[in-house]
Design brief:
alpha+beta, Hypothetical Protein Pfu-838710-001, 5 helices, 10 strands
Length: about 200
Amino acid sequence: MKDREIEAKFLVKDLGLIEAKLKAMGASLLQPRTFEQNLRFDNAARQLSQSGQVLRLRKDVHNVLTYKGMSTDDGGARSRIEIQTQVEDFETTRQLLEALGYSVVMTYEKYRSEYAWEGGRISLDEMPYGLFVEIEAESSEQIRKICQSLNLNWQKRVFYSYVELFSLIKQNDQLAADDLSFEVFKDWRGNLAAYGIFPADEE
């Protein structure tokens, strides 16, 4: 499937409160809390990473292969081409990508719940370094409306991807790790405020 992904991301303090609001608003549960394993692929020259493109194989309740193009600003939201398809066999797909000259350059983990409301998709993400809400919709205006309904501060949206944030943390906190996992971050006591990122559910 080929489509354009338009989304905005927010750091939050209380995912439970956000989820309670979604339920009170009548949002539909698309996916209960699920563990995700993600593999990021690139070639030896790291051409995809250097140009802001993503080739990813994800395992949760399904196996999904995704390509994302370079991102652009769309009314304050992040917009990019996204092509993804469900695949039957995770390991066979990995072998296929490796046969084409790609290799796994990093893995990352998260827990995700997903809701649908007013034409938007709201993801509640537990990352090893924080809690986040991602809102995806057909336009930045629609994302803003959902954001307002959830009482999230639009000005506090996060402009980094999860992998970009991981790179920043590794550099600044001298974290010796290649993969973004809960095990790596179990003793981390850092603060995302150091990168200008503050909870959007705070006044």
